[in-house]
């Protein structure tokens, strides 16, 4: 069973003086970037108009803060499912479907708003529906990046995507607030913003319809089932320390920083006595700082490590939360929000890049879906807590609590390092020989022959001859290989030393099915193969390490019983 060669991604001319804008020289990425920017402007206009519209429907700080929860919670519910479907199905078709879902959802909200049939719970419900589409769309949207640009341009590409979103964040809130304030009836202003956002999705759909996709990784094996795909994605993340570190840092950071996003409208209304346009300017200040960060990050990354960037950003946001809590002067708050937007994007871009570079193509969308679920889960859960505190006490108490929590948690999370050491080579390593066939197989088994490849569980046993002087080095190498086996699909693993022959060691690992074993062979990357070669190089024997395969022997009822 041969494996198809991978697509290594589009080429781009080398740059002697990297500026961070090299990905925009690739036409397909440039078209995607422009369409995404247009759509993001509409999204941020809607975010501002929707949140301010809620302040006109209710005075409850909790309901206002729940707008952030309605935007974030769908990712918490559907992040894993979104990642699994994006790794199984055609990402282009999935993206078209979910972009159309978002267009329809916000279109319905626009019509109801124009007619005046929107209550706080209707607004929350349709915002939730809109963001179900966003949650299902985003893992596939981010996972196609390696299909559009070379791997060495991924950090700059992530920064440019952040620049796109934050250019929209700088313009969208102000434009949304201006449009809402420009009409006598807030229903007309908000409805107009919702309608424009619905139309903005058409630009993205047009680019996707015209995209001739060439996947980076294409298996010749049958597709995984959704449940199995979710399990294998979670298994990979469980045994990938770099990914786990990024998830821990992302959740902790967003949980406390969500106080800014969820309570900014309350600060604008109650503390600064501003209207929709004033709130839009405050929100746009965050976007302006984020835009500056996104365009500056390529140069910053060449001088500072990711851990240092996150440390500086965290320290500043603690200060900004306290500024919002105690200083109610727009002349102070606006510059502080610009710097806070800079710190936010610097951190989130570093974390996003770390996930993109830490995983191979076959599990890319599942890892990104888990990251987005963690990221938005922090926002959603944090927003509820800060909204409850603001409702029962005050915005000052809520913001101060968030600042103290972020400051106290940072020493605990900084030991989870980000983007340390060389980037692993996740180019798929192609086996040069056919996969072993599932023979012998118990002839008395009642399963049809077509099910042989899905039979299991399967135990793989590999015998090594290791001299005593190489034993310590071998155990270090084989335990590195343990991580590879478990990430790629093994459900159990062990290494055993023969009690009567100390130079004989046996590695045993179990796969759920024969098909999963074949998939694990496809998933071996160039970096994984280096670990395998190190283990095999320590073997001393007249022949290579001997592997045997055992398929679980199910109980068979004898004829006549």
Automatic annotation (TrEMBL):
Cellular component per GO, a single term: plasma membrane
Query: Where in the cell?
Result: Cell membrane
Annotated membrane topology is:
Multi-pass membrane protein
Chain residue ranges for the region called Disordered: 1-20
Q: Which Pfam families does the UniProt record give?
A: MFS_3
Q: Protein name, please?
A: MFS transporter
Kindly give the Gene3D superfamilies that the UniProt entry links to this protein: MFS general substrate transporter like domains (1.20.1250.20)
- Classification via InterPro entries: MFS_trans_sf (IPR036259), TM_effector (IPR010290)
Q: Which residues cross the membrane?
A: 62-82, 94-118, 186-209, 247-270, 276-297, 367-389
